[in-house]
């Protein structure tokens, strides 16, 4: 079990401590970009080459041990060549979710740590259910906007943050240049751990949602509130409840992620050097 007292009493201070620990352990004073790898995305990072550093997340201030299969709970540092310039990527393999019941602070601790470690761009990846019937299993979709159905914010107090350009249009354009077949969609954040009922999926579709999952939204808000630019990419790993009549299972999610890992990996590798 990691140390979490500071995380709950002063989450920003905990992120500063965590960032200092990462700088010390890696010997890298500042990172440029962070990637949070969700279910099924973990092997996509192989495209970035060999990490220059890896540790278990719970060795760093405020990080909890992993709770879900496919989320290995590692923090890595990669050196990436950006046209002769050196870029530093901080990679989180796995994340903490709201459905784990530990509250919102551990959910956003990774991205806050990344911003305090210097990251100007945060790439959030996830596996999700497809609400939009045009989506196929194994298809990546850029998050254009979101709908939060959890009633939980990572922010409190009179911090009225504008979310108009939460999922950076600038970065979405860069990614679409890299892969012009990519579509954009609206992601709904559902607390879980249950999947939706078919009636709830109908409600979401009626609200204008295309994708549904149990992550990403609090992290995007927390990163944006600290001044970072956010890219969100969802991998559709199942049709949402009631869309096909099939039941949902976690194995299907892991298998679809594995099958798409190469495509996701080369997309990330192509995009990262163009971000800064
Ligand atoms: I993977 O169908 C994955 N995560 N809420 N609904 C929700 N989360 C998901 C789903 C889904 N598929």
UniProtKB/TrEMBL annotation:
<dbReference type="Pfam" id="PF01048">
    <property type="entry name" value="PNP_UDP_1"/>
</dbReference>
<dbReference type="InterPro" id="IPR035994">
    <property type="entry name" value="Nucleoside_phosphorylase_sf"/>
</dbReference>
<comment type="pathway">
    <text>Purine metabolism; purine nucleoside salvage.</text>
</comment>
<feature type="domain" description="Nucleoside phosphorylase">
    <location>
        <begin position="34"/>
        <end position="272"/>
    </location>
</feature>
<dbReference type="GO" id="GO:0009116">
    <property type="term" value="P:nucleoside metabolic process"/>
</dbReference>
<dbReference type="InterPro" id="IPR011268">
    <property type="entry name" value="Purine_phosphorylase"/>
</dbReference>
<dbReference type="InterPro" id="IPR000845">
    <property type="entry name" value="Nucleoside_phosphorylase_d"/>
</dbReference>
<keyword id="KW-0328">Glycosyltransferase</keyword>
<comment type="similarity">
    <text>Belongs to the PNP/MTAP phosphorylase family.</text>
</comment>
<dbReference type="GO" id="GO:0005737">
    <property type="term" value="C:cytoplasm"/>
</dbReference>
<dbReference type="InterPro" id="IPR018099">
    <property type="entry name" value="Purine_phosphorylase-2_CS"/>
</dbReference>
<protein>
    <recommendedName>
        <fullName>purine-nucleoside phosphorylase</fullName>
        <ecNumber>2.4.2.1</ecNumber>
    </recommendedName>
</protein>
<dbReference type="GO" id="GO:0004731">
    <property type="term" value="F:purine-nucleoside phosphorylase activity"/>
</dbReference>
<keyword id="KW-0808">Transferase</keyword>
């Amino acid at each position: 079990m990691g140390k979490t007292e500071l995380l709950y009493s002063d989450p920003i201070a905990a992120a500063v401590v965590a960032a200092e620990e990462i700088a010390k352990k890696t010997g890298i004073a500042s990172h440029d970009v962070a990637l949070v790898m969700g279910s099924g995305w973990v092997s996509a990072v192989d495209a970035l080459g060999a990490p220059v550093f890896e540790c278990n997340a719970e060795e760093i201030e405020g990080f909890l041990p992993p709770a879900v299969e496919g989320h290995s709970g590692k923090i890595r540092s990669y050196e990436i060549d950006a046209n002769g310039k050196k870029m530093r990527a901080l990679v989180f393999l796995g994340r903490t979710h709201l459905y784990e019941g530990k509250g919102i602070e551990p959910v956003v601790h990774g991205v806050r740590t990344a911003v305090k470690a210097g990251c100007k761009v945060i790439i959030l990846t996830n596996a999700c259910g497809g609400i939009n019937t045009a989506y196929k299993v194994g298809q990546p979709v850029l998050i254009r906007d979101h709908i939060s159905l959890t009633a939980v914010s990572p922010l409190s107090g009179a911090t009225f943050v504008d979310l108009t350009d939460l999922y950076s249009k600038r970065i979405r354009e860069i990614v679409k240049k890299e892969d012009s077949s990519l579509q954009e969609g609206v992601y709904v954040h559902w607390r879980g751990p249950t999947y939706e009922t078919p009636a709830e999926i109908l409600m979401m579709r009626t609200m204008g949602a295309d994708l549904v999952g149990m992550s990403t939204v609090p992290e995007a808000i927390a990163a944006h509130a600290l001044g970072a630019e956010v890219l969100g990419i969802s991998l559709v790993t199942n049709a949402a409840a009631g869309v096909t009549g099939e039941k949902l299972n976690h194995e299907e999610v892991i298998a679809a992620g594995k099958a798409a890992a190469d495509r996701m990996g080369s997309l990330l590798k192509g995009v990262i050097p163009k971000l800064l």
